[in-house]
Design goal:
This protein has 559 residues and is an alpha/beta fold. 31% of the residues lie in helices and 14% in strands.
Length: 559
Amino acid sequence: MKSYYFLILLVLFAFSQKGFGQNISADLKPNIVLILVDDSGLMDFGAYGGEAQTPTIDSLTHNGLMFTNMHASPVCAPSRAMLMTGTDSHLNGVANLPEMLPKKYQEIEGYEGVLSENVQTIATRLKEVNYNSYVAGKWHLGHDEKTLPNKRGFDRSFILGGSGADNFNGSGYLPFKSEVTWFEDGKQTELPKDFYSSAYFVDQLIRFHDEEENKEEPFFTFLSFLAVHAPVQAPQEYVEKYTKMYEAGWDELRLKRFKTAKELGILPKEAEMNPTFDKMKKWDELSEKEQEEKITDIAMMAAMLEAMDHHIGRYIQYLKNNGMADNTIFIVTSDNGPDGGDYAGIMVWAKRQGYERNLEKVQGNRYYGFIGPEYASAIAAPFSFYKYYTGEGGLRVPYVMSGAGIPTNKRDDSFCFFTDIAPTIYDIAGISTTANEGFVPVTGKSMLPHIQDPSIPIYKEDEGVPMEVAANSAYFMGDYKIVKNNIPLGDNSWKMYNLKTDPAETKDISTIEPYLFQSMLSRYERYEKEVGVVKMPEGYNAEGEVGKKSMKAIVNPFK
């Protein structure tokens, strides 16, 4: 008996000294839970300074490692493809969303909007070391016999194949996406009458665990919420507490988040406020009715985050109750910044579907909430722009790692990118951080060496990271970033910023640092050629393309 306890202590000592990787026995491979929030800005969680009550995520953050400089794509499917593969979106088949592309562009290689057969997923790779794998929630990487999760390494799955859906009945949320399909283990399925997305996804994961025959193997869970993608909806009981909180409107919220960012050290003390845009309304320009609607929208978003957090807590408690939590690493992040899309133009269609914008007339389950450009800009504060754009407000997202072997109560401001998450998981599981022979290579880098020893940088000063999606571009290197934001909020001209001193991107230094600017631009242009970036047609913008398709479906719904 004494020798047994000595062996346990010896294993725990090795665990604490060596961390994870190929030095660790297969018996100690940790479970991995990857949680993806939809359209949540860097500062939405409570631990990051947000207004929503998110005690579960906050606990993971305070008992783990909080990153403040993680970057995703500015739109969801490219982010999800990079997350699942560790490979640049132009190489994995999801350079843009089909919903955001003119039809003829969807036939171009790399722009199909579904995962290529030339890449491997995290689930596929973890099969090399006998992980069980589960996914529940939004997939948005294809829904045919080659691209559904059960064909991409997942043992069990319950997923939405498309970009978004109603959170209470699972129906479509846009005129040209009025019907959506749900899949369980690769087969179409129906939703129960008491469906609420965040709750039901966790229910399915718990069922997968209960039905698992090989419980002794480690597991990989991908929990992919609809929260807080439009339509923004939450159970009624979560909403009321937040309506008073946002009565001052979006101008005051911008100032509050700017101040909080400085207090938390996310912004340097000398940093300036992110700029506003001429196209956006001032809060006092709204009528009383309009203000009430927008207050309900933002309160609904906070409520949706709290409801989501509650169900994450249910899942973690289940793992604790069944002895699976202690050897689990939890990762929480978001696919892009807040959604500034203006859905007002489709409200005639939405009301025909039974939706309302007056919460007094309906419960939360028939409310059609959307944040809109003004609140999205405020939520993205202290950063510039939001979803659809490569300003920091569209790209910079929360990223938390917590659990077995992860440092506790630490904050890390190092630059990192969404393609780094998959190779980090591979490193933790003790497998090669690059794809197997015959597949497109992983373009991201493992963050594990840096996590184990912060003196080791994730990226060296001369290592650049490029990005392009929906005619928006960026290139990161060291403390610097060059960026080109598309219309309507951008002007399609290149600018340069020092993100260390000016993360809100207020001072263009391209003429002050001309040699560095030209060097980074040349690197970016080389990247475009290497991965096959396709130039979009004149006047193109992602939100506008969605609007065109919506209006066409409203005018002629049978085509």
